[in-house]
Specification:
Length: about 475
Amino acid sequence: MSVPSSDVSVLIHRVWRWAPFVVLMVVLGAAAGWASTLHAKPTYTTRAALTVVSENRSPDQDAILSQGYADFFNDGVYQSRLRKTAGVADNVTFEAHTALASPILYVTATSDSQAAVTSAARAMASALQAQVNGAINQSHQEQINAALDAFERLHQREPHVPDQALLDLNSEISAIASDSTNKLQTVQLDSSISTSTMNKHKRLELGVAAGIFLGVLGALVLGGLSRRMQSSTDVERALGAPPLAVLPRRADSAEAALLWTTITRLEPPVGSVLAVAHAHGRERTHEVARQLVSVASRSGTAVLIDWSTTRPGEIPGLSDYVRDIRLGVSDVVREIRPNLYEVSYGTVEGDAYSVMSSSRAKELLGLLRGAFQAVVIDVPSLLDTSEGPIACTLADATLVAIDQRRSRSTEVAEAVGDLQALNIRIAGSALLLKRPRRRPSTGTLFAARKRDLAMNQDPIRGRV
């Protein structure tokens, strides 16, 4: 499993992380599409045709006027008034359109009720024609009235009107009355009813497509709102620098070896004591310390100081060494395997803060520093305990471990801020993946320690 670093790969990673949500949305979309096929009703359609024919204009010019009538008809406010005039039911939808550059105007009526759609297109087309032509006829009548008024004024001035004036008046009235410019004329008002039903497979495909779209969109939104540090980009945004390494949940990984090499080559040199810190105790970042100390033991002696929990255990450790001055270092150091050792917190109950800040704790760490080539401290959680930052002060540098499953950017940034306030050197960060790589693990330090305990091995003697 790779960790994204670019913006595109971050988006892909978010979708992949929320893959169950995407799958759920696809299933719901498919179910909705399938359910719609169970209740799908056929739709019925009728059509009426009108046209505009003018003596002084070409058909393509009349087509422009027809398109204007279509736009006027499709206006919701006007159509609702026209519906009332025509007395058409509300369950019928209408649309007017023209065909390319043709002046023919089609009025289409669609409904899931065959009875309602039978005469709907005819009624709406007739109502549109009546209103348009009525407005034009009213304009013509006003022009005729104006001509008659002009003739009447002429007759009042000249009682004997010339015959030619009367002939001109009749000619003008006839021209106005016969003018059909801009009027809608009937092409066909009645048509057969056509029936259509959406294909079931198409409905299912649309449901799946909608589910994919909503699922991906939801995954991106949820991923953006999440404060968990899922990628190297998230780490860089929170801490200002990318992680030194991305580690799988597997002991002795190649990535852990590369991380250890990177840490040992930092400038200025880190030293032999490294603390591995994490924000909260609920995180599984303790595996980072175990991987590092396991890698360090390949080239020399290494000891893991397991202070990840300050609850008393069954194995003598730091708390026993601090409270009992009779104990030596060999009494609290246990061998896990050749070159690899461990120091636990201990068996004594008490204030962990006072234990870790005591001079005996510093003395123990000094002795371990001189006896082992690498010392890794798995410190308590920084935000949950007061002793976590104190444990980091005992080390030469601190590595911030980030859990891909649980670490939140705000909490990790706060923990790093606490370390910086104490002037603790931060070597960098490491992102621990959510799931292991496919290559099987070769074992963990926990398993090794359980085997040692089962064999009842004695603490090493003479090592330090």
